[in-house]
Amino acid sequence: MVLNVCYKTWHRVRFVVTHRHRRGDNSKLGIVKSAQVASVLAGVFSIFGGPKKSESDDVEIANFMAEPVSDLTKLKEHRSNMQARMELLIMKIQADFCRALESEELDDAKFSVDRWTRKEGGGGISCILEEGQVFEKAGVNISVVHGNLPTEAIKQMRARGKKLSEGGPLPFFATGVSAVIHPRNPMVPTIHFNYRYFEVTNTDGSVEWWFGGGTDLTPYYLNEGDAVHFHKALKTACDKSSKSYYPRFKKWCDDYFSIPHRGERRGIGGIFFDDLDEPNQEGAFQFVKNCAEAVIPSYVPLVQKHKNDGYGYAERQWQLLRRGRYVEFNLIYDRGTKFGLLTPGARIESILMSLPLTAKWQYMHKPETDSEESKLMNVLRNPKDWLKIEE
Prior knowledge:
Blueprint: H1 2-22, H2 28-48, H3 72-77, H4 82-102, E1 112-117, E2 122-130, E3 135-148, H5 151-159, E4 171-183, E5 190-201, E6 207-218, H6 224-239, H7 245-256, E7 258-259, E8 264-265, E9 270-276, H8 281-293, H9 295-306, H10 313-332, H11 335-342, H12 348-351, H13 372-381
Antiparallel strand pairs: 1-2, 2-3, 3-4, 4-5, 5-6, 6-9, 7-8
């Protein structure tokens, strides 16, 4: 009993020490004292041997951006449960991606970490970086929420073919990671990714579950080499599960990220999928894991390649106009935004973190023929098979 209490205390202190150091906290006395406590507790373990290590003890929360939303003890106890596995995965994806982006900043800009709770159940962790030299705005959020589905959400799910019970409240659990990165340099593309897991419990106790998500790229200036690199990374991730996934989900992405009133796509695509429950829960989870882990190698090399490229006033104005299109899609068509706004207790700041700090709408703007801007528009109106794969 004593050792168990000591172990939990030591683990918590280690989390605090690590995060004060990582976040640049200058309270040296607090860090020293915390470190001394951790040292004493570690000594206790060296004398008494400490608790036996098991797979559930490998939850390294000190590496996360904040403590998990769910109680750590419960996460460990239910480590094999898909809810816990997905929460731990998205916590790691969030931390890895935030650190990768911070390492590209030129002025030591860091993400602010906002851990929030939802009175209806659950909460989330929003990591936001603003006004960096490389990233004008970057948001990487995770959420772990539960409660009863609102009526409009049930209607939306039934319209997609979900067989949900009638005549009673339907408990749900949803967890996911979502990121949108708006770089300052117009030569660096914007990236969006989202990977999520959803459960709904019917009135008879049966559970409907599925995964969804995707990664897509929105450049302001077209670089075909970048496009090929990005799509190759996604295809490699998809192929680990099925050779059919990339062409299938690439087309889905082109169709989904469409702005019908403009007759164009938001960007040059990637992959997108929803309601994935094949081949089984474990197989679907591994697929999502592979795709989420492919984000850094698909995107960060493009940041490194272009963050110091030169640009002028005209390129900046074009970037702002394209950001306007981004806003139009997210507020009018994006299903995730709609679901978030319909969910009781929704946190508006986190939902709208996908919007850029600045954007622009210009009346009847049309790029000049054969310009670099028009080359991008041609691809946005006619999605391209970047890897020359025939379905």
